[in-house]
Design a protein that fits this description.
The chain is α/β, with parallel strands linked by helices. Helices cover 40% and strands 16% of the residues. The protein folds into two domains: 132 residues, translation initiation factor eif-2b, domain 1 (Four Helix Bundle (Hemerythrin (Met), subunit A)), CATH 1.20.120.420; 208 residues, Rossmann fold, CATH 3.40.50.10470. It has ten helices and 14 strands. The strands form three sheets. It has a seven-stranded mixed beta sheet, with helices on both faces. A four-stranded mixed beta sheet has the order 11-8-9-12, with helices on one face. Helix 2 packs antiparallel against helix 3 and helix 3 crosses helix 4. The longest helix is centred in the middle third of the chain and has 55 residues. The radius of gyration is 19 Å and the shape is globular. 51% of the residues are buried. Bound molecules: the ligand CSC[C@H]1O[C@H](OP(=O)(O)O)[C@H](O)[C@@H]1O. The site of the ligand CSC[C@H]1O[C@H](OP(=O)(O)O)[C@H](O)[C@@H]1O has 16 residues, from helix 2 and strand 9.
């Protein structure tokens, strides 16, 4: 089994930070495309730079996209750019994670409601509120998720498989699914974290392994195609993943490769758990077929390994798991299981933010 880093826990990762130097406000991003070997910050002073960072996944992960989008509106307002243009550019930078448009609209509504003079301050205050609410949601989900695992997995010593990256890098706090894993690690209940490398952009091997090492978790990396043999060997007690958009019927879009894990989990009678704040739920999207799946450049696949020139590649960023294959959805307002439209609507109705 793989070794793990033994450095002291240090899970605070400032993914997104607002600064106000003398020459004007800046949104500072930890460039996730440079991790795990380089911790490089991008300093965005205009919306185009932030949109570029979102599209290149320098900043990525549904909840933090909402936070960054809200700060993007505040940046436009503070620097005198056309706010409505900024709203359009930011909200459409990536189509699947509903959190992005949600955060952008929160700050935009605050700006519009405050009038010209107070607009920039109102947009910034709302962005900070979105940021703080996401951090609080992360803490609440960790607690709900830990209690759920105690109910689902007997005997403690959890062996959890996760896909993509869902830790502090994607959150105002300690994350979504990986935030739950971190809580079990702190409680001494984490026996093994299985980390899918998550092709083609390798969020698992680059980012989840980075976060697991920083936290001192017992983790082992695996090729995505090796997950099936772990299930067959009885080495997985639960699968925990994040989400980018949850439709009204509970269908969930998440990083491509999540749906096959749900099918494997169902076949092997292993709990498949989605951890996501209610800002990821879109009750206006009726079902999974209605979720727009981002299609990314084929070069992200063909550049990974030697391929003949001119090779075409199919590269959807996400896939959709039907509610019937999801054991539970963990939100900041509680756990829903089984996953039904009514339960989903009820847990969203408790949302304290806008
Ligand atoms: C819980 S948010 C993280 C979520 O976002 C990731 O997608 P991407 O890396 O393309 O932003 C992936 O779907 C994760 O589950």
């Amino acid at each position: 089994m793989g070794d793990h880093d033994t450095r002291p826990e240090n899970t605070v990762i400032p993914t997104v930070r607002w600064e106000e130097p003398p020459d004007g406000p800046v949104l500072v991003l930890l460039d996730q495309t440079r991790l795990p070997h380089e911790e490089v910050e991008l300093r965005c002073t205009d919306v185009q730079a932030l949109v570029g960072a979102i599209r290149s996944l320098a900043v990525r992960g549904a909840p933090v996209l909402g936070v960054a989008g809200a700060y993007g509106v505040a940046l436009a307002a503070a620097r005198g750019y056309d706010v409505e243009d900024a709203v359009d550019l930011l909200a459409n930078a990536r189509p699947t994670a509903v959190n992005l448009a949600y955060g952008v609209e929160r700050a935009a509504a605050a700006y519009r409601g405050a009038g010209q003079d107070e607009g920039p301050a109102a947009a910034l205050a709302e962005a900070r509120a979105v940021h703080a609410e996401d951090a609080a949601a992360s803490t609440a989900m960790a607690a709900h998720g830990e209690r759920l695992l105690a109910e689902l997995v007997s005997g403690g010593g959890y062996r959890i498989l996760t896909h993509c990256n869902t830790g502090a890098l994607v959150s105002g706090g300690e994350g979504t699914a990986l935030g739950v894993v971190l809580a079990t690690h702190r409680s001494g209940e984490l026996r093994r974290l299985w980390v899918d490398e998550t092709r083609p952009l390798l969020q698992g091997s680059r980012l989840t392994a980075y976060e697991a090492a920083r936290a001192g978790m017992p983790y082992t990396l695996l090729a995505d195609s090796a997950a099936g043999s772990l299930f067959a060997a009885g080495e997985v007690d639960a699968v925990l993943v994040g989400a980018d958009r949850i439709a009204a019927d509970g269908s969930t879009a998440n990083k491509v490769g999540s749906y096959p894990l749900a099918v494997l989990a169902h076949h092997h009678q292993v709990p498949f758990v989605v951890v996501a704040p209610t800002t990821t739920v879109d009750l206006e999207t009726p079902d999974g077929a209605s979720i727009e799946i981002e299609q990314r450049p084929g070069s992200e696949v063909t550049d990974l390994a030697p391929t003949p020139l001119g090779t075409q590649a199919y590269n959807p960023a996400f896939d959709v798991t039907p509610a019937a294959l999801i054991t539970a959805i963990v939100t900041e307002n509680g756990v829903i299981s089984p996953v039904t439209a009514d339960r989903l609507a009820a847990v969203c109705a408790k949302r304290t933010g806008v």
